Amino acid sequence: MSLVVKDLIVDHGAIRAISGVSFTVETGKLSAVIGANGAGKSTLLRTLSGLNKATEGTAHWGDHNLLHGKPESHVRQGVSHVSEGKSVVAELTVEENLDLGALWRRNKKEAAETKQQVIDLFPRLGERLEQRADTLSGGERQMLAIGRALMSKPKLLLLDEPSLGLAPLVIEQIFQTIRGIVDAMNLTVVLVEQNAMGALKIADSAVVLNLGRVAISGSAADLIADPAVRTAYLGY
């Protein structure tokens, strides 16, 4: 299964947020979507997860049409979205948040096994299962958001700005964990990031958005080596 987006257009009223965007992400690969604020990165993810409506174009995860149906139907097809800063319930404990991620799964034994997998990935969460989410540090909360998304056993993970507001050492840890998840679980990941260099270092491929259009795309290694990309987006 691959994620295939073709000629995607998304309008917010009179404003065209996404304009003719096309790209493909192969199974088990991580694609970074980078670009300045207002480039359309978060809108792209929200459209793929069913939170925004597309104006034109197509987007498929295997045979599943991502532009039709509600977000819950996408989750059941193995698509999970971690939105920027909004993916944990502050009043619930760490364990309750994780269980919420597996709410629709009928096999409770498998859900319990997935929870143990998540705790193995994020040992700090295992130490804080009874703590409320609003008592966690920023990094721990981001781990919980990703962990909760993994509880639905996704095959396609859409991650929006996981490094936002975190300390450099924590960002490094989060990025390495994301790369580890891709490799260990054969997950396909679309990672939207302001931290362009950090994202490119762990990505297989990348898409640079500029004012809603694809400015350049290709392998992450090629983009890092491209002087024009380095100057415009990586700051050196």
Give the CATH superfamily of the largest domain: P-loop containing nucleotide triphosphate hydrolases
CATH architecture annotation name of the largest domain: 3-Layer(aba) Sandwich
**Order of strands across the widest beta sheet?**
6-7-8-3-9-10
Give the domain tally. Answer: 2
Low-confidence stretches: none
Largest sheet: 6 strands, mixed
Question: How big is the Rg?
Answer: 17 Å
- The CATH class of the largest domain is identified as Alpha Beta
Spell the H/E element sequence: EEEHEEHEHHHHEHEHEEHH
β-strand amount? 25-35%
> Helicity level, as a percent range?
25-40%
Distance between the termini: 36 Å
- CATH third-level topology of the largest domain: Rossmann fold
Give the integer mean of the pLDDT values: 93
Number of strands: 10
Commentary on this structure:
InterPro entries: AAA+_ATPase (IPR003593), ABC_transporter-like_ATP-bd (IPR003439), ABC_transporter-like_CS (IPR017871), BCAA_Transport_ATP-bd_LivF (IPR052156), P-loop_NTPase (IPR027417). Belongs to the ABC transporter superfamily. The chain has 236 residues and is of the alpha/beta class. The protein has 2 domains: 156 residues, Rossmann fold; 64 residues, no CATH class. The protein contains 10 helices and 10 strands. The protein has a 6-stranded mixed beta sheet, sandwiched between helices. It has a 4-stranded antiparallel beta sheet with strand order 2-1-4-5, covered by helices on one side. A hairpin with a 2-residue loop joins strand 1 and strand 2. Helix 3 packs parallel to helix 6.
